[in-house]
Write a structure and sequence with these properties.
With 157 residues, the protein is an all-alpha fold. The protein has one domain: Up-down Bundle (Ferritin). 83% of the residues lie in helices and 0% in strands. The protein contains 7 helices and no strands. α1 runs antiparallel to α3, α1 packs parallel to α4 and α5 runs antiparallel to α7. The chain is elongated and about 50 Å long. The mean pLDDT is 93.
Amino acid sequence: MKNGWKLFLSLLIPQVVGLTAGYFTVTGVGSWYQTIRRPEWNPPNWLFGPVWTALYILMGIALYLVWKRKERSAQKRSAITLWSLQLAVNFLWSFFFFNQHRTGLALADLVVLWVLILLTIFAFARISKTAAWLLVPYISWVTFAGILNYTIWMLNR
């Protein structure tokens, strides 16, 4: 596959997953989320869309940098598998939190997601240091999201 198509697909896949997960987020934010207790330091709702869009772009670029490399095919396959798993677990968080209103389950999902992102960073670093560094803002945001999710869970138990 030509690198142009790899770049296109690498950017498209996380955006499609993000848009699909965003459906659950938008429907939840407009109703249930407004009724629960949230910490005073909860970011404004308008911030989440741009942040996630940027993070999905960075994830796509990171995937592309790994996918386009020709060497180390077993390592590359493993790294891309981890990337795919973390993206699936990322999607599930929106479903658990906003659709099912299961803040505790969403928190457990975030713990799994955080570990998968870290493993993906390590796997990507063996292939492309740049790709690994592109995931650092993502794991940082997921760390913050985990603290926020935990606080919301505790406030609404």
